[in-house]
Each structure stands twice: as structure tokens, then as C-alpha cells.
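Late entry, written up from scratch paper. The run itself happened at the end of the previous shift, but nothing got recorded in the book at the time, so transcribing now.
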Amino acid sequence: MSAKIATILGATGNQGAGVLSALLQGAIKYHIRAITRRPESDAAKSLRTKGVEVVQADLNNPDSLRAAFAGSHVVFAVTDFFETFAANGPVEAMDIEAQQGINVAKAAAVTASLEHFIWSSLPNSTKISSDKYTVPHFESKNRIDSFIRQHKELLARRRSSG
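Output as recorded:
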């Protein structure tokens, strides 16, 4: 029997790299698939030397996500607010990140082999501050949380790390 596939978004970033490292050292052996927009980057090349499959996909392209998730048993998903924040400011970055996360959730929802969807989120700052504060990079992830909660089948396979 071949190893189950664990697919990691953000495998070259802090969270994804931590998940990848834990899986490489874990008792349960997975075939690890790292998703990146730049499969020829130095970081992606370094992952290949560790036996990781590197696959190109873009969070803005749902078709590429569905293809990248094909056959996955586990998907660890994280989005990056700060890359778009630097270029577009907080309001547009929230909209972009929320759509990217929704694209990821939709792609995961149609992955027939998926057993576990692990979504990295953050607390609802508006709610826990009694509407005093809204933290933009929390808010965009909360929008994605709301989307995921509406999808019972995906929710049944979801594990939140936030």
C-alpha cells in the first residue's frame, strides 16, 4: 500500500515549513506534496532534496488548486495576508486573502480522497473585543472560516489550527 498524500500550502513559509518538518519526522509516513507558485525557486528545490513532491498552483486559480489536491488525503491550508497587504493595503488585502481561502476550501471540498482539511486561522478579533477592534489579517481569515462552516461535508473533514 502506498503512503497517503499530505498536501501542504505555504510549505516554504513558516507555518507550512513547520508542518512539513513535523510530517517528515513523524511516525506516520506520508507522501508529502508541497504547493508553490514558483516550483523552480531555491526553496522548492530544497524541498525536493528532502523527497518532497513540489507542485505548482496558485491560490488565485481554482483549477490549479483542484489539480494540485488530486489524490490528497490531508490538506494543510494557510494563506498569506501580508504579501498582498504590502502591495495593496489592508482593505484589498482582506478581500484577496478571503477569496484565496475560499478558492482553497472549494478545491478541497471536491477532492474525493480528502480525509482531513486543516485550515490555519486566527481568532475573531471583532467578536472577542466586543466590536472595538477589527484586525485586518484576522478578519480575512474569519471570512474564510464562515465560508467553511457553511459546507457540512468539508467541515466534517476540517481541523482548525487557529
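DSSP finds eight helices and six strands in the chain.
(Scratch paper discarded after transcription.)
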